Amino acid sequence: MSESELTAGVRIEPGRKYGFFTDTTLCIGCKACEVACKEWNLLPADNIGLTGNSYDNTGALSATTWRHVRFVEHVEGATVMQPFQSNWLMMSDVCKHCDRAGCLEACPTGALFRTEFGTVVVQQDICNGCGYCVPACPFGVVELDLDDGKAHKCTLCYDRLKGGFEPACAKACPTNSIQFGPLEDLHDRARRRVESLHAAGVDSAYVYGDSAADGGLGTTGGVGDLRAFFLLTDRPEVYNLPAAPSLPSTRMMPGLVRGLAAMAGIALATAALFMRRSA
Amino acid sequence: METRRSPYGRHAVDVLGSVPADSPPPTYYGRPALKPTEWRWLITTYLFVGGLAGAAQVIAGVVDLLGYRRDRSLVSAGRYVALGGALVSPLLLIADLKTPTRWYNMLRVIRPTSPMSIGSWTLLAFGSSSGLAAAAQLAADAFGLDRARRLARWFGVPAAVSGGVLATYTGSLLSATSTPFWAVAYRWLPALFGTSGTATATALLSLVLDRLPVARGSRRRLERLALVASCLELALTAGMDLRLRRERVRAPLDEPRPGAAYRFGALGLGVLAPLVVHGLQALTGRDLRMMSRLASLGALAGGYTQRAVLVTAGKNSASRPQDYFRIAG
User: Fold this and answer.
1) Alpha carbon of B117: minimum distance to chain A alpha carbons (Å)
2) Inter-chain contact A74–B18, Cβ cutoff 8 Å?
3) Distance CA A201, CA B144 (A)
């Protein structure tokens, strides 16, 4: 019996899609996920200071921070007290491991690849630090580390999955806000959780990143299902997430075709001007 | 004020009452929702050099195919300029890699969804065909070998085709990202870079031919082409500007320094000055040599400024979450 069966009740088999379901209504903002991630992946501390943004002193996901807990204090303007968390929203953000991943599509070396567990990983022995994945990501996740010259992001603990271990953040989460498992199981779990929250009076709960959830309301534009998806209770932007992210590569061909048409026009103009007898 | 209604959290908004659904999207302490590119001046320079070299090869290729003896010095100059650009471009790109010793991994896969991958292969094709064409051209120019001239003409065809791609794909390279300023302009940037590349190539070539009395006619024809390129560039700039305003992501260009560089450098020097001077030459039929030299220098400086400003604007735009949420809402 592998460890993940004991800790998460999940058998890890190559060929199946795995992911995270992050239920923000259960998050207590303890940042155990951030610490567990840094410890397992041997990531250095990156900001030892205060941001002034509530308890969020991490700031953002980065090359050396692969889990990031956000804090939103909804005090001003709130007319109704939420039945949980006293109108504090907390959310542990992570790489979404998109179905159609902008970073992977942008990578010219093939360093970014889709693993046998359906996740998206940067192969550190191939990446040459061109950095094109960085502006490509619709969620601002992947980043270059200028110390080692490679791109880094969450691997969904690829090494742990290979050994039959639950990812570090999910294992460390004390409230089960971060749940690891096969994607279809997680989708079921998330839908049931939304139903039970609605029944309990939390009308605002919805799933972000599952195209089939909530009558398609959870569709995330062109990037498809997110392998790491979220249960949210306010607009996505409140959590620094785009409501409708799009796939960057869809913007390539329409422009390129027009550009080549312009160059064909230039070539024709050149031919016309240089054919004239005198000028 | 136009705002798009988010499909999410309608309930959320009603219940929490924190942010009315029709108001502009909220942000998370104004923190960026995206990461800007780490590109340095090396990439800006490549955008300029690659565009110039690609367009020079297109001009040389087309003029060579027409086969007039009078434009031979222009064809030669175009081939050598293109080769120079083809040699410098990969060096600039490799120098900007954060792990430059692994540059060869760029040729490890072909990824049709990545303009960076398409560009790497295009640059390889452009470099090798430009090298062959220039070598044959050199043999023809140095020894007067007609066979070499024919060979240069045929190598010039793949060189011109890959040159056309090289001059334009860089626009897609910017647009096929999540950076709001570039993403919104995806229909305009490749054509804009292509015409701007042509404007800078004609400027440099006419400065080169300026020293050759035999090439006076070539230079005047080239300056007509510069006029066409500048007109196209002006129209495309206007179209892109309109689109940026309509999507309300133009803010990075409204800041004082990039704004001034864009107006006076990219537009004033790069587009309007050559347009006016070459337009005057075409209308009056006179050869205004000094003015035309200055206009060419302006076109080169303006072309570089345009690339620099657009790259900077993109970097700043990625740090403006309100802009991103507006276009991804």
Assistant:
1) 4
2) yes
3) 88
B39: how many CB neighbours lie within 10 A of its CB?
Answer: 21
Give me the architecture of the A12-246 domain, per CATH: 2-Layer Sandwich (3.30)
ipTM of the complex: 0.93
Give B275-329 pLDDT, tens digit per residue: 999 999 999 988 889 999 999 999 999 999 999 999 999 999 999 999 999 998 7
Nearest CA in chain A to B37: A135
Mutate to test the interface with A, among B4, B35, B73, B99 (most CBs of A within 10 A): B35
Do the Cβ atoms of A276 and B232 come within 8 Å?
no
Q: In terms of Cα–Cα distance, which of B228, B217, B242, B304 is closest to B269?
A: B304
User: What stretches of A15-132 show up as alpha helix (H) in DSSP?
Assistant: 32-41, 102-106
Structure tokens at B113: 């969804």
A138 CB-near residues (< 8 Å, 6+ apart):
A98, A102, A221, A223, A242, A245, A246, A247, A248, B34, B178, B328
Test B186 with A107 for CB contact under 8 angstroms: no
Most distant CA atoms of chain A, gap in Å: 86
Structure tokens at B55: 């367009």
pLDDT band at A1 (very low <50, low <70, confident <90, very high): confident
- Order of strands across the sheet that contains A18-23: A178-182, A18-23, A228-232, A206-208
Return the domain boundaries, chain A. 12-246, 248-279
Is pLDDT at B9 greater than 50 in this prediction? no
Backbone dihedral region for residue A140 (phi beyond 0: left; psi -120 to 50: alpha; all else: beta): left
Query: Nearest-CA neighbor of A92 among A186, A224, A180, A152?
Result: A180
Say yes or no to pLDDT of B114 above 80: yes
Q: Give the strand pairing for A67-73 and A88-94.
A: antiparallel
**Token digits for B78?**
């175009």
Give the mean model confidence (pLDDT) for residues A22-48: 95
Residue A81 forms contact with B (CB below 8 Å): no
pLDDT of residue B125: 98
Distance CA A174, CA A154 (A): 20
